[in-house]
Hints:
Blueprint: E1 8-9, E2 15-16, H1 42-59, H2 62-70, E3 79-85, H3 91-102, E4 106-113, H4 116-122, E5 130-134, H5 137-142, E6 147-153, H6 161-174, E7 175-184, H7 188-197, H8 207-217, H9 221-227, E8 233-237, E9 241-247
Parallel strand pairs: 3-4, 3-6, 4-5, 6-7
Antiparallel strand pairs: 1-2, 7-9, 8-9
Helix pairs in contact: 1-4, 7-8
Amino acid sequence: MNDRTWSVRGADDRREPGLRAVDLRQRDTELQELMDDPGCDPRVLDRTFRRFAVVNALVSGWRAVWRTHVVPALPPSGRARVLDLGCGGGDLARSLVRWAGSDGFSLEVVGVDPDERAITAARRSTSRGVTFRQASSADLVAAGERFDVVVSNHVLHHLDDDARAGFLADSERLATGRSLHSDIRRSRQAYRAYALASPLVSAGTFVRVDGLRSIRRSFTVPELQEALPTGWTAERAAPHRVLAVRDA
């Protein structure tokens, strides 16, 4: 199948354009992901949250980020409180606790998401050391919460300029140590690779359509650096990842 004829069919039978029909030179901030629609099919959404555990394990690169960016930021005691903002189905929060245990650390991870549907999905699978709450970053700031490390995965590309500024400012207030937000790095290679591989895991979900839309909405490293406030650094990571990092 060549680039010109690629098409993407989601759970609601919508199609995405092929690679040659997509302009990836700039962010497409007008695109809306299907799962962001409050009226989307709840059964498909629930399957999508469940499938994220597989997708993120394959493409998010968080196992490496844990070692290179989270572990060095943990307190010397090896015990830490970590916040996962926009936790979705909770797979990253559960993974962080599992990796910490394997590496001799003790984490309490709190996963929060303002979307009740996400928290419902996250709470279906419980893990020792992980709690999930329906809340926003602003709610936690107002409550006076503090965490050693604040992380997120695939949140930044969803936010407009004002929402992103508020999200990052809240992250600064919540983190006593490091804030670390990971997202997709937009490129033709990322779009092509995801379009070819995602059918293997996307049946009956929004995973394929929304994944490609996420790439089109996402940042390059220079774009993210320009969008970040003073004190933040944009870093390139593999595979096809960009990190926003700030140390308190």
